[in-house]
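Instructor's aside before we start: the two examples that follow are unrelated to each other. I chose them only because their records fit on one page, so don't look for a connection. First example below.
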Amino acid sequence: AGFVKVAGLANGHLRSAPVLEDAAEQGRAAGRAAGGKAQKAAVPAAVDAEEAALSPVWLMPQGASYALRSKAWLDFQNDVKVSDVQLAAQEGFESVEHAKRYTTLGMATDQGKLSNINGLAILSRSLNAPIPDVGTTTFRPPYTPISMASLAGEARGELFQPVRKTPMHAWHDSHGADWEPVGGWRRPYAYLRGSETVAQAVQREVINTREKLGLLDASTLGKIIVKGPDAGKFLDMMYTNMMSNLKPGRCRYGLMCSENGFLSDDGVVARIDEQTWLCHTTSGGADRIHAHMEEWLQTEWWDWKVWVVNVTEQLAQVAVVGPNARKLLEKLGGMDVSAERLPFMAWADGTIGGIDCRAYRISFSGELSYEIAVPANQGMAFWEMLMEAGAEFGAMPYGTECLHIMRAEKGFIMIGDETDGTVIPQDLGLSWAISKKKDDFLGKRAQQRSFMDNPDRWQLVGLETLDGSVLEDGAYAIAQGSNANGQGNTQGRVTSTYYSPTLGKGIAMGLVHKGPERMGEVISFTKIGASPVQAKIVSPVFYDPEGEKANV
């Protein structure tokens, strides 16, 4: 830690004897702080001549000409002169706060410590008013000196930004988690066992989740409560599809677009009661979407009665996934999780294993799946309970790469993979999630522009290499001809690509020119340092196209 001390005149002592005494004491303090043993030495004697009391002289020479006043500096950081303050008073900026902003006096990093007293005195004299009547400006932090180390904060360590950790972080760390940064959080990419590679761990997790039981820490997902008499109307503007007609106890997948019509986030929305909805967002989107909602409420719809709060870190959330998911929850007991009581895309409050929870029947894997939210301080206990009770059902934790492979096998999009700020929902085959009933929503008018409302766009398809290999992430689909610079033309690109342990081959999703109209066609994709790879255009849903496994 840094050690900063000021001494003598800098410490407010104005006479020689106190200056020397203070200097000696500060020197001894520095020595002790450095680990030494300070010797008490004699302080040099000093005597000051008697001086008259200080006189308030704010400008030298008194009665200086305008030319001199234009070179009499008050604020050395912002180059404010005596003449500037006098001009502010002359032009009617009589309030000290107005004069400050007119001249920028005291607005630099010192917050007026070097200049404000002199500047305010000049202003008071210009206004022919006593200094106390003119007043002072607001001093902002740091009002008292602080160390540079305090300003640096977390930047002193390995990372510039603090790491966000879920309540189950310590468990993951002690069970082989290979960490991945996700929106300020650390999430397990996979859990390594013994000498296996990351790729082997990922394949094990996918197969186990598909065949038995997988547990995912989904606590990082954004959770935003939207409440109030106008909440339904507000969410209808936020999302492309209708949310106001969602029934309490039910869930609906929703898309959000920017004003320009481009897809910005997605997630499942649950209606809690007549005036309350809970919106799930992507892990990296929670703070951004919360700010997005607040901005519209504060700038455009300020008279709507809506309350928005980000409760992401108040809740831990666990996805219980796989054919044995219901068996585990029924073993722990406490609430009815049957298909009749809790059908697909429904939710219910209750207790599981004695812990209060809210269970959502939603699936991002295509398997029978429950996402269960519990209070954050119960997250670790709930996770350990699931792992212990789930052992007989083959429970294993799985990480983000397993999550991505399973969602790609189902053709589910991922914000940031299938989207890049230029993609609209229609490009991704999500027209069904755009309401035809609503008069308006954010992005609607933009999507009606000729550039957007045009079938001649790159659209989402599935891709299968003819040899079963894995396409490169971001690889471009090669088109005939070249542009004016001699660069080859393109007709699409890969957005997500994985080896599928479920199917035993490489699978990919991509945006291809008029792709959905070209099913079965074979096109070539670039491969760095090698010959192009041929792939067939297929449906993006590679696994369980009817959705039977999730809806049981």
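Example two begins here.
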Amino acid sequence: MPGDDIEMAITYGGKDINLLSVLSLIPGVYQEYLDGVSAGGSVNFDGSVSGVYNEESMPKVTANFAIVDGKVSYAEYPIPMEDIQVSAKFDYPSADLRETSFVMDKFHMKLDGEEVSAYLYFKDLEDYFWDFNMKGNLDLEKLTKVVKLEDMTLRGLVTADLATKGRMSDLDAGRYASLPTSGSFGMDNFYYESPDLPQGFGIMNTRMTFDPARIALTNFKGNAGKTDLNMDGEITNYLQYALADSAKLYGKLNFSSALVDANEWMTEETTTEEPVDTAALETVRIPENIDFVLTSKIDLIKYDDLELKDFGGKVIVRDGALRLEKAGFNLLDGYFELNGAYESAMALDKPLYDFDFKIKDLSISSAFESFVTVQKLAPVAEKMTGKFSTDFKIGGSLGADMMPIYEDMQGAGLMEIAQATLKDVKLLSAVSNVSKLNQQDGEVSLKDVLLATEIKNGRLYVEPFDLTIGGRKATVGGSTGVDGSLDYLMSMDVPSGQVGQALNSAISSFAGLDNAIGKDITLNLGIEGTYDDPKVKLLSAQPGTSGGSSGVKAALQAQAKEKVDAKKEEIKQELEAKKDSVTTEVKEKVDAAKEEIKQEVEETKEEVKDKAKDAVKDIFGKKKKGDGGR
């Protein structure tokens, strides 16, 4: 180049160029799309580049483009796209971006009697100014005959009438009166199907209207495969959202459906011996610049083997979180209500969840079959019959596979069991072996039980509660780990004759009685191991009372009696309280507030173990003294 300043004086132009010859400039890889195409009309263009180019200035640029009486058709579809008229101009008079402009003062085309026309004036790259309008009807099926779509079905009639005008500064300031925008958009008998969407997506009819502040969806009736879709609502702040990176999009939508079949959209499982690349999995990110409320009413939702009936509630997308508000439905003959949130804004690699849920009259065995969390923390539910209700709060974090990280899971709440039975499990056999109860009498029954429970550090803690084993009353408290480990204490009353003559003699000597045989005694048991391989051991055995409470049982009940009612009410109040932040809820309501429950269980366990050890020493010390040291 001759120097820092480069002087330019360029003009260019073309006149009455056949439209088909312009299409021939399309790269060869796309030439197959031109087979059987005929075109007519002329293309005209001209322009100039003039002035000095250097680090501080740019040359002036002008460009004009036009299509006159254009026409395109395919041999197998005789109806052409015709009366194509286009006139456009680009002007860059100086380095001042405010003077840049683009004008398309004419755009018109006709397709088998359906006309589309548009106008656009755009200028000032510092403070955008636009003036745009479009009006017309478009038959999509006719369009696909002119523009071929491989392996796709597309049809429907689109009608549009839109006009908008204004400046970006008025938009940013919310001066909607300075932004005249109006129009409507409609679609009838729309249908789309492709190899990627074999279920098909259809819109029977929909209508939208526009003004500067909002887009109103007055009606939408369609389907996605077997799922029927009915909607109405509005979107606001849409112009700012479209033109500014930091703007938020606001909206509300009412949705109703007779059937949502999620199974139709789930990917079929494929059998492969190759390991799954979990690094490729990603958690779902909730956008932070969308504030949207979806109010839904769905008669039936099919998901996997589950059928959710009479679903109703709100789904709120706000501040990078997805919240459920009074989302209720019937499932497995029980009623569910959920309130809570999923939040990805703070940690996309480890998103948080925090939910309050109420369940009424749900089958215990069905809950085991349907929910992985129940399988992990309450495997005994597999062999239980009966129903339960609960008012529970649970929170924690999710991994890359969108499954809960059980070690981070925290929760607390109440579980009510009106009546349930449990039998044919290894745990009962292990208890029977130690307690000497007949295994055929080893069925466990629960009636009118209200459990105070807590999930902490990968374990489910249960405060002491009463149950019946083989017709004998027992009290149980402790925890189950997500790894299947058990750590429970059990106190149960059994006839003294069942535990053997030697132990009866020791108990008689310990109690100062000559005829302990035939009386009830209380066995205090420790349950460890796993659900599949339980380990039950005798901690102590003592004469029972008419109330059947002593040893471990007395300790458990003493700890629970004064505090459990107050704690139940406290948990209820905490479950009813709502906070805006998921993180705050998990930290304050689940972590800190529920720590007291854990401490009480731990204190009970330690106190019981100490008393049990002392009782065992006393029993077997007396035995040695009474039988000559045998």
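Residues 1-135 form one domain.
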